[in-house]
Write a structure and sequence with these properties.
This protein has 371 residues and is mainly beta. The protein has strands at residues 2-4, 18-25, 30-40, 43-48, 54-58, 62-67, 70-73, 80-82, 88-93, 102-111, 114-125, 128-137, 152-154, 160-164, 183-187, 209-212, 217-222, 229-233, 240-244, 282-284, 290-295, 308-312, 318-324, 327-334, 342-347, 353-357, 362-369. The strands form 7 sheets. The protein has a 5-stranded antiparallel beta sheet with strand order 2-3-27-26-25, with no helix packed on it. A 4-stranded antiparallel beta sheet has the order 4-5-6-7, with no helix packed on it. 46% of the residues are buried. Mean pLDDT is 93; it is low at 1-14.
Length: 371
């Protein structure tokens, strides 16, 4: 069952793949851009099935299975409240999906006082999620319907990370250990709390918290072997950050930030970090409005191996970020204006790069190398 506020009916779907750009020269790699699917309404995230199919969430509350140019709507979803930035958001497969075919969804859940971020899972059986169960709900329902965060990433030990934004009205919630808002959480696969989380046993602290002081993480990726966790998050006007995440650390929002107020461009908090707060690895300038984040791990794009690919909504581009010893040493803009607002960026299992465009008639695209 889906509760949708102000959403249109499901759009038409274009089945035939289409070459958008046959050859595009970048600084070190020629690429091709192929459109695999269109007619997706505000697509938010994509996950890759072992048989080559794609699961794509649509924010108004639908989960689509895209395979061989055709789509099938998946049933068995929970009740979802689609309002403003909320709705059906991230999708992720259990790391051992072929043995445990769980599909995890993050979504806005309505309740007394507004909405909260929820996480649930169901077993993919044909065209439905069987036995769907809600395994986590944010501790407080609130308004307005924005800054949900919602990215899911898995750690090698089988636990998962889930981001929750500050929810948009009370930024100070991000500093309150008794509140899930403005945090990165760590959960077991069934939604329970890992015993070694950093704030387990601390009086007044939510035990799911992994790190705090986040405005709105919408890009999240774990490096091979979990040697590093990278996150991109939204500032207000400026202040879009790339952060290296470590447990128990405080990333500053809203006490310290290089961002500016929307109304008068006055500083939002302290521009310089001080003891007890972590500096961002990098601030994106001009504004990126970060979305999906991928780490290039294969040799399909040899010149990009080890680089981060950070999607941008307002910027309508991908920023290729080159890192050396944990510091940003170079950047390149990719796909500027080619697909519009970019909502998700993922490295597929075969090493190609996948992109979702955030429009009412959005698409799933693939970036391929050109020899």
């Amino acid at each position: 069952m889906v509760a949708v506020l102000g959403a249109a009916a499901g759009p038409a779907f274009g089945a035939a793949p289409e070459i958008v750009v046959d050859e595009m020269r970048t600084q070190y790699q020629k690429i091709r851009v192929v459109k695999l699917a269109g007619g997706l309404e505000r697509p938010w995230a994509v996950a890759f099935l072992p048989d080559g199919g794609y699961l794509v969430t649509e924010r108004p509350g639908r989960l689509q299975l895209v395979r061989d140019g055709a789509r099938t709507e998946i049933g068995g979803l929970p009740e979802i409240t689609a309002i403003r930035q909320g709705g059906l958001l991230d999708v992720s497969l259990h790391p051992e999906f072929e043995r445990s075919p769980w599909v995890y969804l993050s979504y806005a859940k309505g309740g007394e006082g507004g909405t909260a971020l929820a996480l649930g899972r169901g077993r993919l059986e044909g065209d439905r999620l069987a036995g769907f169960e809600e395994i986590f709900v944010q501790d407080r329902f609130s308004v307005p319907g924005r800054h949900y965060g919602s990215r899911i990433a898995w750690l090698p030990d089988g636990t998962l990370l889930l981001s929750i934004g500050d929810r948009g009205a009370e930024p100070a919630r991000a500093q309150d250990l008794g509140d899930h808002a403005g945090k990165l959480l760590r959960l077991n696969a069934d939604g329970s709390v890992p015993a070694d989380n950093p704030f387990v046993g601390r009086e007044g602290a939510q035990p799911e918290i992994w790190s705090l002081g986040h405005r709105n993480i919408q890009g999240l990726v774990v490096g091979p072997g979990a040697d590093v966790i990278w996150a991109t998050e939204h500032g207000p006007r400026g202040g879009d950050e790339l952060n290296r995440i470590e447990p128990a650390l405080n990333y500053g929002w809203p006490i310290v930030s290089r961002a500016r107020q929307y109304g008068d461009e006055s500083p939002y908090g302290e521009a310089r970090r001080r003891e007890g707060f972590e500096d961002p690895v990098y601030e994106f300038l001009p504004t990126l409005a970060p979305s999906g984040l991928a780490l290039v791990t294969t040799d399909r794009f040899p010149a990009w191996r080890g680089n981060l690919l950070a999607g941008g909504l307002v910027a309508e581009r991908i920023r290729r970020v080159v890192l050396e010893d944990g510091e940003v040493v170079h950047e390149e803009e990719l796909l500027l204006g080619v697909v519009g607002r970019i909502r998700d960026v993922r490295e597929g299992p075969e090493g190609l790069i996948y992109v979702l465009s955030d429009t009412a008639d959005g698409g799933l695209y693939r970036i391929e190398p050109v020899d």
